[in-house]
Amino acid sequence: MKLEPFAMERMQSTYENEVEFNLSESGVHPLTVRELLADPHDWDAVLDQRLVYTQSNGTRELRARIAALYPGAGVDHVEVTNGGSEANFVVTWKLVEPGDEVVLMVPNYMQTWGLARAFGGAVREWALKPAHAARRWVADLDELTRLVTPKTRLIIICTPNNPTGARLTEAELDEICRIAGRHGTWVLSDEIYRGAERDGRESPSIWGRYERAIVTSGLSKAYGLPGLRIGWIVGPPDLAAATWSYHDYTTIAPGALSDRLAREALTEERRQMLLGRTRTIVRDNFPVLEQWLAGQPGAFTWIPPEAGAICYVQYHYDINSLELANRLRTEKSVLIVPGDHFGMDRYIRLGYGERPEYLRDGLARVAELLATVPIAGAAART
Ligand SMILES: Cc1ncc(COP(=O)(O)O)c(C=O)c1O
User: Fold this and answer.
1) Backbone phi, then psi, for 133, in 5-degree steps?
2) From the CB of 26, is ligand 1 less than 6 Å away?
3) Is 158 in the pocket of ligand 1 (CB under 6 A)?
4) What percent of the chain has a predicted confidence (pLDDT) above 90?
5) Could you read off the pLDDT of 240-290 as tens digits, one per residue?
6) Strands (E), 40-121
7) Gap from CA of 84 to ligand 1 centroid (Å)
8) Are 205 and 191 a contacting pair, CB within 8 Å?
9) Could you tell me if the CB of 351 is within 6 A of ligand 1?
10) Comparing C-alpha atoms, which of 58, 2, 119 is closest to residue 261?
């Protein structure tokens, strides 16, 4: 099996802890354990947690808390993984065989693009399109109908989407399921940004719309707890059980301490606190980014993200996006994600989930560098 490099993660893994300003992150400023467990009465349960191999598909209590977020699901629908990335990994590994077609919404977190290809699948890209007048990214369902064939094993979507922050509507999700249902195609919906909406309205889920719908998610983005490395799969019990047996070959089990802290994070009160915190950050920080973008007329075109602490920005400077990212890193110690990592030059993804003063200072450095780059001709602007 040949794995192509996962360009964005490789770049982040290499540099994110070396730069002064990391604007490549898609989540919000993470919490400390103390912030998560503000009441000292709750500390003993954590300190007394024995560092065993915990229940390898997640403790029953954690799976029950996760299942409660998906109407009609029970503990047998849930498989707990090490991060959303392991959830995506085992689902794709389980489902994709050589010769299968996989329809992938793009732009997207490119993990499943690389995995589907590594497992012998043929990836057919289904592009979200920017509708600038409506200020939203549009899902072309007629195109999806054309792309899905009897050989399509899996449709992969990401909603709210990384990198655009766009969310699919209930009607769009229903239609995706209807199209998938024509050939018994599975639908994998990565919903790890669900709960991080700027307008506070929870994004619709694929869950409950189709018998072959699978959700992957976790605590890394909307909950602000990426260091816990807790993700999950919610799907039909047979599928959840099958992915559990694949998990035996990857990491066996989640960390016992992480499972424990995840149970604490998902009590209803703390869950509301965590999501409220994230929504406050994205609501308060986006104007900082938007004012910065608007302060440079003719330089950028963007559609405001509906959810997630990321904005996918088209720029009109005469420079390739990877070159721009490399120069920002080496000359200004700022890390951003180049559109090249999503197969789209002339875009950058800017993370705005950090503290406002950090964001302002990082953006000021980006502006310093851009001031030295020529703006492309007006014809290049769309
Ligand atoms: C859409 C999406 N899914 C999954 C992940 C990975 O999540 P985790 O850090 O929980 O493994 C990311 C990380 O950026 C992501 O953007």
Assistant:
1) -65, -40
2) yes
3) yes
4) 97
5) 999 999 999 999 999 999 999 999 999 999 999 999 999 999 999 999 999
6) 78-82, 101-106
7) 5
8) yes
9) no
10) 58
